[in-house]
Amino acid sequence: MDKPLLVATRGGIGDQLICNGIINVLSETRKINLVCWDQWEPTLTWLYQDNDNVQVYPWQDKLLGPFHERNQINNANRLESEYLGITTTSVNLKTYYTDPYKQVGIPAEYMYSKFRLPKNPTYDLEFVEKFKPKNPYVLLNIWDKLANGNISNFQNEHVDPNLERVYITPGKTKNLFNWVPIILGASEIHSVPGGPCHVIDFVYTGRLFYHDARAGTVYNLNNDGNNHKWNIIKYAVKKAQ
To answer: Which of 17, 24, 109, 179 shows a CA-CA span of 20 to 30 A to 86?
Structure first.
């Protein structure tokens, strides 16, 4: 087996999930030291629990920019690893999904075909019981991290009024994948950009609505890998005051 790789992506959990296919392919032949922002350690440790070739290393910043690259190169040297930074310094919204795969020379369709949950996933059943309704429900991922609350201009008219509403809210669980049983049980899902949106994209096959409620943040979400399954709802760009 070749020299281990120390891999750093951009700091968000969405970036880590998009790169899961890359990590799974690379780890077939190499040991991977996967650096992450420390708040995502429980989620990523859970995700890679079956993969003995992946070791998650938490870090106390978001791994963005040249300064952080230098820190991780130093870490790679300390761990006797080769450094691989995946789109850590810039991002193009139009090619956000495919750029990491192009950068490392792996087919972009592997983002879906090589995405892996643990073979026998276990979830926090107390958490699921607390947040999963008994009645049919719609799941909404509309959290605005800048405002620390749900997005104010969300277009409620697109949501089935006959369904109970459940909101994905940060901080309810340290492992983002504990939402999976709740995601899978929803009658429909509405989402804005963010980490939960990527979990939904990889695991859910029902009625999906992507809201560009931050105006201008529509990634190339629909593609052949996910069978163009999202209904895209565009919002008007806010005019300058």
So the answer is: 179
DSSP-derived letter for residue 210 is: E
Place of tokens 């892996």: 116
Retrieve residue 212's tokens.
């560009």
Please name every residue paired with 55 in a beta bridge, in sequence order, or none if there are none: 33
Contacts of 60 (CB under 8 A, 6+ apart): 37, 38
CA gap 197, 161 in Å, rounded: 22
Non-local CB neighbours of 192 within 8 Å, separated by 6+ positions: 141, 142, 143, 144, 151, 154, 210, 211, 212, 213, 214, 217
In DSSP terms, 143 is beta-bridged to 150
pLDDT tens digits, one per residue of 122-174: 999 999 999 999 999 999 999 987 778 898 889 999 999 999 999 999 999 99
